[in-house]
Design brief:
By secondary structure, the protein is of the alpha+beta class. It folds into three domains: 100-190, PDZ domain (Pdz3 Domain, Roll); 194-415, 2-enoyl-CoA Hydratase, Chain A, domain 1 (Alpha-Beta Complex); 419-520, no CATH class. 39% of the residues lie in helices and 20% in strands. The protein is built from 19 helices and 21 strands. The strands form five sheets. Strands 3, 4, 5, 6, 7 and 8 form a six-stranded antiparallel beta sheet that branches. A six-stranded mixed beta sheet has the order 10-11-12-15-16-21, sandwiched between helices. Strands 1, 13, 14, 17 and 18 form a five-stranded antiparallel beta sheet that branches. Helix 7 links the parallel strand 11 and strand 12. The two termini are 44 Å apart. It comes from Psychroflexus planctonicus. Residues 90-160 form the PDZ domain. This is Peptidase S41.
Length: 529
Amino acid sequence: MSKKHYHKKYLPLIIGTSIAMGLFINFFINGNPSRFSANNTTQLKINQLLNYIENDYVDEVNTDSMVTTMVNQMLDNLDPHSTYISKEEYGSIRENMKGEIVGIGISFYKVEDSIAVIQSLPNGPSKKAGILPGDRILFANGIKLHDQNLSNDSIIKVLKGKMNTDVSLKVKRKGKEELLDFNLSRDRIPIQSVNAGIVLNQNLGYIKINRFAETTYQEFIEKLNQLKRQGTKNLVLDLRDNGGGFLKEAIAIADEFLQDGTPILYTKNRSGKTKENFATRKSSFKNGQLYILLNENSASASEIVAGAIQDNDRGYIVGRRSYGKGLVQREMKLADGSAVRLTVARYYTPTGRSIQRPYSNGNSSYFNDYEKRYENGELLERDSIQVNDSLKFTTPGGRIVYGGGGIVPDIFIPKKVNNLDEDLEYMLKGGVIDRFVFDELDKDRKFYNNLTEEDYSNFEIPKEMLLNYTEYLNQLAFNYNFETHEDKLKRFLKASIAKQLFGEEAAYRILTKSDPMLEAVQKHLNESS
């Protein structure tokens, strides 16, 4: 697979999802939805035109669709992060960022037009009821869920509902002739924004945050306190591929690392009014060594945390230059249930730098920045990172930092240049490996469902599974030879199995064992101790 091919196939999904999460960085205050008055000629002109079209145009026209098109075109002329959210999208986006849903607590695949359980989520209704990975849910409250060609959204609507409402399930389990009956009550199911909090070695802890949702700070504190009880003295905060989220969550997390009164960031609106944010007395990790992992998909709230740490000389940024989003959005609801996120301010790091990339060449150029970085070599060589000397700032400790386009790392780690390396990583992030692993586990559910995580630590990926994966890709029209990357493929397969059997934290215990950025952190720690 060529670079161009995998770029087109996987990257839009990863970056699109990442930046969609980053657009949530806002004050989430419902501002005045319109400053137009009844006498405003611009508003009157638009209303008149729509009335003429609706009442007098020769053909019937969907004016709702026309208004949506007009709104999108208006926002496109502002900046890349002022966006429109349809009524249909709004609910699911809000739910995802709220950090919980009300449902039965499963993840699932559609397999041969049936609902196959990937995992019953910890402490959820399905887990408590005894629903196992590999079970097929055939009916829910008498509604047939198999052989119906239902969309995922339709299935989710059946399984979700109001708190404490009852759900009666009929389930097919391999090895059982009769259908199994389960009766359970819907409950709140957390949508985790913190994937893992694990001990890497005797005094180094690791926390992975995938986005900044409403519950992120609380999830983070729980993991941090757990690591401190286990003896963690130094910490790695992994914000790679984290496209951002709520501003207040980023500020709260940065606060945990900084001395009372230390600046975290400030924002400035069109009129020049500024709002400053400072650390408080609550700091609970202000002395240990701190490392923030970033890559080219780390944006918005991730950059706020990294900028506060770097500008105050509190820790080290490890990885590659971040995305470069320094605009603040406010969400404003519209009359039909849709919403717009309008850029209302810029944020600045403690030294006074804006890390927003230029967007004067249009949205297409702006969102294709990854390709430009690849071509100019900055993903491979630190010296190729393009900085603006006129936007040079100095931290209190004398470090030189730059504005105008993301956070430049203190410790640079190049991106792997080998096609197969990158393809494997995209397969893992994009779910290709996860889907294959589900089918492999389904071949012997009794064995895998009886494994404990301790048992699994000694599990070796069989050669047959590697061959099966190659054949699986062949069926998808991809031809690979993994001989030179067998160890990496084994690690990714083992991590995917761990995630489906024991949860994401178990997967990160495997993935962190061979990670160039974490190896660089450990080397730096050893040299500085």
